[in-house]
Amino acid sequence: MAIAIAAHIIAAVIWVGGMFFAWMVLRPIAATRLEPPTRLNLWLGVFDRFFPWVWTAVAILLISGFWIILRVYGGFSSVGPHIHAMMTIGIIMMLIFAHLYFAPYRRLKTAVGSENWPEGARHLGMIRRMVGINLILGVITVVVGASGRYLI
User: Fold this and answer.
1) What secondary structure does DSSP assign to 110-141, as a single string?
2) What distance in Å separates the CA atoms of residue 95 and residue 59, rounded to the nearest whole number?
3) Is the pTM of this model over 0.85?
4) What number of other Cβ atoms are within 10 A of residue 130's Cβ?
5) Domain span holding position 102
């Protein structure tokens, strides 16, 4: 169980921490100091490197989460409401990420490849909003996971 919990926490830290860095540190600098071609290419490079980590985190979160619930606790009926909340919010986050990856991110790649900067900026804006939503959900999930048994 210790390995599953450690893997679960590390995966959550990588995903939520990466979103926090992108939103709070990189975005303000890129948005204010870089011209559209440079900014869009920078973000595309960031996403190309970060998104494989997110997919890995999603897989680890699902595998470790279900393993802990099913093998350690014997199923969902044996865990508290905070675990149900964490699982629900986590799956919503995964669905948002999957949409982000297969729709606006793919369109961003196409727009940047064809040097269509206004279209690329539009798709980057969509990605930014989805990452912002997922960052909020991720922080809530971390709080629920860490202290939920005392809150709910």
Assistant:
1) HHHHTT-HHHHHHHHHHHHHHHHHHHHHHHHH
2) 13
3) yes
4) 19
5) 2-151
Q: What pLDDT sits at residue 152?
A: 62
CA 83, distance to chain mean position in Å, is 19
Give burial (CB, 10 Å; 0-12/13-18/19+) of 62: middle
The total of structural domains in the chain comes to 1
DSSP, residue by residue, 6-38: HHHHHHHHHHHHHHHHIIIIIHHHHHHHS-HHH
Could you identify the residue written with the tokens 């893997």? Answer: 7
- The residues, ordered by sequence, that sit 6+ positions from 123 with a Cβ below 8 Å of its Cβ are 104, 105, 107, 108, 111
Rounded to a whole number of angstroms, the CA Rg of the chain reads 17
Provide the 3-class DSSP secondary structure of residue 75: coil
pLDDT tens by residue, 40-95:
999 999 999 999 999 999 999 999 999 999 999 999 999 999 999 999 999 999 99
Number of Cβ within a 10 Å radius of residue 88 = 12
